[in-house]
Amino acid sequence: MIPRKKIIAGNWKMNKTQAEARVLVEDLLRDVGRFDAAEIVLCPPFTALAAVSELLSAETNIRLGAQNLNEHASGAYTGEISAAMLKELYVRYVIIGHSERRQYYKEDNATVNRKTKAALAAEIKPIVCIGETLPEREGNTWKKVLETQLTEGLAGFAEAEVHDIVLAYEPVWAIGTGKTATPAQAEEAHQFIRTHLGKLVSPAAAERVRIQYGGSVKPENARELLNQPNIDGALVGGASLDARGFTSIIKNACAS
Ligand code: 13P
């Protein structure tokens, strides 16, 4: 079995001007610019991508990610950004189907599927987000929800394409709430996702695909979460906006 390299991504959401982004990235380059025990990905807003891209062009292991893309190649889609536009800025990853996009912008699993296809076609690795809401967790329908999100979101992809996909399990009830899934709860969900992926694609693909956990990841809980056998990284929101906090998440996540 090929060991899965951990992947820690910072989702800045709608935060940081270009000037603020530069300050944060310069601090991170100093602290973890050569860190090699995990892949580090920064996902700034679109307006800061070029500035961050320029800073990351020096020798560093930190990669650039975007928070969204449009599924069409080009055309009359006011306000949207294509895969080619991201590719030109050396974007290597793109977050797709974040619960905030599903909730506020009505993205469904079919949209996620089309966007994932567009990203893969441009050789940008999709970080596909799935996760249940609080009523779904409490009503014990979370497994069904995750199953549907995976089955519909990843419909029609070849095994080799799935290898390039990163999944992010983000229970909606844990995002920005300070409520983290316990390591046991998160591990149970990750294991369930991997098993379903095995049936959906192949056992080999399931072994290979990295599954990040997201939802109130902080320096204090990163180590225990990331020490679970099926948790291969973190998608960090609020705590990725501060260089100190994000750096200690990265370091704690990789300490066994
Ligand atoms: P928080 O870390 O702020 O809870 O956000 C998680 C998230 O949505 C990352 O994509």
Provide a descriptive summary of the structure in words:
The protein has 256 residues and is an alpha/beta fold. 46% of the residues lie in helices and 15% in strands. The protein contains twelve helices and eight strands. The protein has helices spanning 18-32, 46-56, 83-88, 99-104, 109-121, 134-138, 142-153, 159-163, 183-200, 203-208, 219-226, 243-254; strands spanning 6-11, 38-43, 62-66, 93-96, 125-130, 166-169, 211-214, 233-236. Strands 1-2-3-4-5-6-7-8 form an eight-stranded parallel β-barrel, surrounded by six helices. The two termini are 20 Å apart. Bound molecules: 1,3-dihydroxyacetonephosphate (13P).
Structural class determined from secondary elements = alpha/beta
Instruction: List low-pLDDT spans.
Output: none
Helix/strand order: EHEHEHEHHEHHHEHHEHEH
State the helical fraction. 40-55%
How many separate helices? 12
Question: How large is the radius of gyration?
Answer: 17 Å
Shape: globular
Distance between the termini: 20 Å
Ions, cofactors and other ligands present here are:
1,3-dihydroxyacetonephosphate
Main sheet: strand order: 1-2-3-4-5-6-7-8
Count of beta strands: 8
Mean pLDDT: 96
Report the sheet with the most strands, covering strand number, pairing sense and barrel closure. Answer: 8 strands, parallel, barrel
- What is the strand content? 15-25%
